[in-house]
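Q: I have 155 residues here and want to know how they pack in 3D. Can you give me a structure?
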Amino acid sequence: DGAETGADMPAMIAAGIGFKPIPSLRIVADVNYYFNKDVDWSGKEDYLVGGMEIGAGLDFALSESILLSAGYITAVNTGALKGYHTDLSHSIPSSTIGVGGRYYINPNLYVALGVSNTFYDDLYNSGVDYQGLVTGMETYNKSTLDIAFGIGFSR
């Protein structure tokens, strides 16, 4: 039909810090802020404010060839107000926990495996208008499991 819908990615600013209390342990933390109000989402930006996430993680070298890691990130504020949510487009507060590991086959080659699970809060959207026929309430709930495998090479 030739219709165009804005789907900009919001600008963001991020800050992080990391330190090594001992040579085999690295601890990190970060905060991410999303400038959701400055996007063109064909009017949906009227139902947005800035969003923020905070996270923390650690890496532990079990040996010279095995690295273990774990992390956590939570959406403190998704930036989505009540009028933003639909069955096709919603932003739900969430928390993600992940663990992983890396095995160095040699100093230039490694394999990695990671698993994370994102837990979303239930979101209830009342007064949803179904094409003027009826109004109702929608419940959005989900969780996401991610599994990743990788191979890394450097010279």
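Q: Anything worth noting?
A: The radius of gyration is 20 Å. The chain has no helices and nine strands.
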